[in-house]
Amino acid sequence: MRDKTVEVKVKDNELAQKILENFRDLDTYRVKVGYQRGTKKQTRGEDGKVSEDSRVELVDVVAANEFGTSKIPARPFMQNSVDMYEDKIAAFMYARLQEIAEGKDVVQALKEIGAFQVGNVQMAIRDGEYVPNAPRTIAKKHSSKPLIDTGQMRQGVHYQITKKVDEEDAK
Prior knowledge:
This protein is α+β, with helices and mostly antiparallel strands.
């Protein structure tokens, strides 16, 4: 992404303090977009009904599709969610930075960024051009479109706001 600068003229000292606090907060928080452990993979049975597979977690299915395995070709939808929408992301981020510079709450801005990127991941799943499903998979799910069967992968992506301190404590 391109580097951009934001120029702000401040006439109010209180506002200047708020802006400085906001940018310190911006360095304190992180927004993470992805999948959480603990969600079981859903499968579609021969009868077309969806059920939970207690042996497999969704995050493992996501990793297998993102990076590929010996049996599954890589379908890097997470990376594509950034690559396909790079200009759109840059414009959105620039607008949030301007709002933060004008006093917008950092956590609120990060929530908007998280929701925005969740949407990009969902569009990358829906619109991405990936290696088609194998004939056996097509027969099972009646579709050659990869990454979409029960809709769980598209619906299961979420964002999370964390504090940098929490991440360092976890190490």
